[in-house]
Amino acid sequence: MTPFSINPDITLAETLPASFYRSQEVFDLLIEKVFAQTWQFAGDTTKVALSQQIHPFSFLEFGLEEPMLLTNSDGQLSCLSNVCTHRGNILCHSLGKSRQITCAYHGRRFNLQGEFQHMPQFKEALNFPRKADDLTCFPLLQWGPWLFTALTEHMDFQAILDAMNRKVGFLPLHDFKEDKSRNKDYLVNTHWALYCDNYLEGFHIPFVHDSLNAVLDYSQYETVLYPNANLQIGHSSGGEHIFDFPADHEDYGKQISAYYFWIFPNMMFNFYPWGCSINIVKPIALNRTKVSFITYVYDESKLDTGAGAALDKVEREDEFVVEGVFKGMNSRVYQTGRFSPQMEKGVHHFHSLLAQYIN
Predict the structure, then answer these.
(1) Which of 54, 76, 106, 143 could form a disulfide with 161 if both were Cys (CB 3.0 to 4.6 A apart)?
(2) Count of beta carbons in the 10 Å neighbourhood of residue 185
């Protein structure tokens, strides 16, 4: 496979080529070289709010499907492998509560930190138990009510959380409550990276999103880059529906109505005065992507106002565009494009990271 390269100078750089989005080989490599090396959203603390609660889930639905468990052992949260170390059986299939984890196949037992406890009919086994007979414990980080995990600690995820906290840490994050009635999954006929490309620039807003453009001041739209994340800042056009910053906040005095955080490779945390819309982009196939919208509210009185209103309409408008772009990537004449140095810093950053990881 030809290596991909993105010029670090955005004024000279070209985008990833169309072949990047057409190739099944590249798609498969992205799963292993990007998603297996980065962090994913693991839900919130309500999943394991009580001691002895156990919550099974999959790391990256469709893509990797690594079986994992969130556990609460007297207030200590852990993220463990959901695969028995004896014969590979899935340990837990549904949310439950127990003092221990017992495999239903042959009775191997673990505590809620994943440590091996007991195994029937193994008295004659030599050099047993080994450390490998414990369940693998994955890294777990918490920010506000939200939990994140990874297969490896290759990425410095705490630095990302710290950067986000500097902007929105003044909000009562622990008071954010999931509103399941507003949650929604979207199936989009495009490559997952093209969906992210679109999210990472406000360039298209005046052309695609009339209602959003009416409440944002396009002339002040900002993009801030971090090593493995970036932030787009939406300023209010009329000074309404904005954050109420404390006096010591670095954006105090600014009329900001939205913070759009993107975490490499596929997580978006969109903060509005009413709360947060989390978007998780999940690669199903080369031409199929699932986007899960998860809504957390702390001020219901501000719902459906400003930049945080009509999110479904904005999503549908984005889908129309990114599905068209994916069709365009199959053109025999289109190869690559250029970046707007002013408006596409986030896309250039994303392409640079993809090329770095996949190479």
Answers:
(1) 143
(2) 11
Cα(8)–Cα(109) distance, rounded to whole angstroms? 52
The H or E element containing residue 284 is strand 275-285
d(CA 308, CA 275): 9
C-beta separation of 146 from 280 below 8 A? no
pLDDT score at 67: 97
- Please give the structure tokens belonging to residue 333: 């004449």
- Cα angle: 24, vertex 29, 31; to 5 degrees: 100
For residue 191, count other CB atoms closer than 10 A to its CB: 26
Q: What residue spans of the chain are helical by DSSP H? A: 18-22, 24-33, 157-168, 192-199, 205-208, 210-215, 311-328, 345-358
Using CA atoms, how far apart are residues 188 and 2, in angstroms rounded to an integer? 28
- The single-letter code of the amino acid at 183 is N
pLDDT of residue 279: 98
Distance CA 150, CA 264 (A): 13
User: How far is 334 from 11, CA to CA, in rounded Å?
Assistant: 20
Cα distances (angstroms) measured from residue 102 to each of 110, 174, 188, 358: 6, 32, 39, 39
Please identify which residue in the block is written with the tokens 């056009």.
237
Q: What structural domains does the chain harbor?
A: 39-150 (2.102.10.10), 162-358 (3.90.380.10)
Query: What are the pLDDT digits (tens) for 277-333?
Result: 999 999 999 999 999 999 999 999 999 999 999 999 999 999 999 999 999 999 999
